[in-house]
Amino acid sequence: ESGVDALIAAGKADPKRLLYGGWSWGGYLTAWTIGHTQRYRAAVVGAGVNDVFVQYSLSDINHGAAAQWEYLGNPWLQADHFDRANPIRFVRNVKTPTLILHGQNDPRVGFAEGLELYRALSDLGVPVRFYAYPREPHGLQEPAHVTHRTRAWLDWYQSWLKQGPR
Asked: What is the pTM of this model?
């Protein structure tokens, strides 16, 4: 956020037209960021981890030795290590309109991650849309899905920029 502040101060970014989004790790960062600031007009969470406990349980890689490295433990014994880096714990603060994109056959970041974030934002009254891509793993592969994802992402940003000042 200090980098965004510097770009605004330098006149290189308009604070009224900020957008945030990413895929995979970028999706995790997006879920984290929108729980900690409301400065962005819209966000896109693509195949993003939003609950590190679910991630530990469902991922093909983020458990065992990987969790020992990243979180210094396992969630059943060192829950606080996981909880402090857990975006879903801050979802109550989210106000940013959010688009969620997720492959239904994602072994890296389980589809349940997208469903959980969608449910939470829906329950909280945050503008949210969720696109699920059948058959798709962590990185979308089918050309029609890749095209749809790109168009949906762009359309989401454009629609929220057209809304006028927040």
From this structure: 0.94
